[in-house]
Inverse folding.
């Protein structure tokens, strides 16, 4: 984990993500994966962002659905899923 973190900056970024909605980020799963990784790296988990992510993950055209639509999973999809799980843990 990084030894420096501007928690208010991450919380403000999370508020902005929630206000704009995840739709603008969800064109590719990579965008959401990188965002989750960034917050996980500094151990900042704003409840509003986690709730928005949960809705996105469980939706009809969800992040998980897009990553797993091709079987067997591609190397990139496996890496993104693993990174997401580790970051949220």
């Amino acid at each position: 984990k990084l030894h420096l973190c501007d928690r208010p900056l991450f919380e403000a970024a999370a508020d902005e993500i929630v206000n704009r909605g995840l739709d603008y980020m969800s064109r590719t799963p990579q965008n959401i994966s990188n965002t989750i990784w960034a917050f996980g790296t500094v151990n900042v988990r704003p409840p509003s962002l986690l709730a928005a992510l949960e809705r996105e993950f469980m939706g009809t055209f969800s992040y998980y659905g897009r990553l797993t639509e091709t079987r067997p999973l591609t190397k990139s999809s496996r890496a993104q899923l693993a990174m997401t799980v580790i970051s949220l843990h």
User: Anything to note?
Assistant: The mean pLDDT is 86. The CA atoms of residues 1 and 41 lie 6 Å apart.
